[in-house]
Design goal:
Elements (H helix, E strand, L loop, with lengths): L3 E2 L2 E2 H30 L6 E4 L2 E8 L13 H23 L5 H24 L2 E9 L2 E2 L5 H19 L1 H11 L1
Antiparallel strand pairs: 1-2, 3-4, 4-5, 5-6
Helix pairs in contact: 1-3, 2-3, 3-4
Length: about 180
């Protein structure tokens, strides 16, 4: 039996919500990167408060600047990987049952982040980072909204798989 809200199936509402979350992440990521690129000088920290600077950085590699010092081939490898992962996530989202709302939100965040960084990589050849978190003299690698969305999405996926997946499986078995 399909769960519906009025005449619209719940699964369709979920998918549209997940696409909305993905679009919101992409738009926020793009807008903040545009702001950072226009307002900040490359590699010059602008203090916000103790522990947080806005520092424009261009990341030619992957997470934590892995592969940043290569000759340029990494741009295409990482872009291709982002496209494959995005397609995989999109198919996974479209196949989710209506009850897997947290999984859908998690995947939407990861997808939005992957697309946000992919846009940079294809358009600029690097990813724009600008959030600089630090403690005393130790700095976390600079990151952006897309990176944050990916991280939150992965954490939510882990929480979902550890604490909620078995209850959904039990509910689905009871309905069979």
């Amino acid at each position: 039996m399909t769960e519906t809200t009025g005449r619209i199936p719940q699964r369709l509402i979920n998918v549209l919500t997940w696409f909305g979350i993905t679009a919101l992440v992409v738009i926020l990521d793009w807008w903040t990167k545009q702001w950072a690129s226009g307002a900040l000088e490359l590699y010059r920290p602008e203090p916000v408060f103790a522990g947080l600077n806005m520092t424009l950085a261009h990341n030619f590699g992957a997470a934590f600047s892995f592969l940043h010092d290569q000759s340029g081939w990494q741009r295409w490898l990482l872009s291709g990987l982002a496209i494959v992962v995005s397609i995989f996530i999109l198919v996974w989202m479209l196949r989710l049952p209506a009850t897997d709302k947290l999984t859908g939100v998690s995947l939407a965040l990861v997808l939005g982040g992957a697309i946000g960084n992919l846009i940079d990589r294809l358009q600029l050849g690097y990813v724009v980072d600008f959030i600089d978190v630090y403690y005393q003299e130790s700095h976390w690698p600079a990151f952006n909204i897309a990176d944050s969305a990916i991280t939150v999405g992965v954490v939510l996926l882990i929480i979902d798989s550890l604490f909620f997946a078995s209850s959904r499986t039990a509910d689905q078995s009871a309905n069979d």
